[in-house]
Amino acid sequence: MKGGFQSVIGHRGSGTGIHPLGGPENSLASIGWAFEHGADEVEVDVARTLDGEFVLFHDESIRPRYGRTLRVGGLTLAELREHRPDVARFVDMARAYPGRRFVIELKSYTSLEPVIDGIAGWIRGMGPDNFRFLSFSLTALLLVRKSIPGCRTGYIATCVEERWEPFVRSYHLRRCLDHGIDEISGHWWTFGGRMATEASRAGLEIGMGLIDGPRAMKKCMRTGAGRLYTNRPDWLSRQLKHIH
Question: Are 211 and 236 in contact (CB under 8 A)?
Fold first, then answer.
């Protein structure tokens, strides 16, 4: 970044899929590995199970090796763990990493209000400054602002009302500014230089992902992105140390 601080944010912990060292995505092991290897923050996904537990889980459903596809929201925590033993609850993460900074991505498929209300108490207790919410859904972010005053929010500007938008445009910036959103985010290739400049001038933080290689890294440096989402927090943190 041109003269500023860049935050390395571990994507679903230490990366999607199964990291050779960090463990399965969104697991406590993966989160811990990311923090130990250079992540300033960790991004996780939160969903609600049938019995009202708030778990770190990305997909809407799981497909066992044998059998039909199962919706996460239609399974109890115990049933989900039969298929994914490493699934952690939000409360497990909060207790394991007090004082750490997290980005919580809200998925449109999950029950937004129950999820936000269910974890709001923990966030207030641990300090809203340690958390921010990220979503493709502007509705989700507005619910967060209402339920948890002072908690920062980020809009993933590549989807509008469930419609895929391949590039960040001026109207995405306007949506953020009109609704008090703090961060505008997208994959690194979706940001043009002009859009990044406009966002910076408007006072928005810029989030880019996934910064996993040299081309993406160069784009961040050229555009001045400050929030860098990555599957390789160890590699990215080393690159930033060399630069700064």
Answer: yes
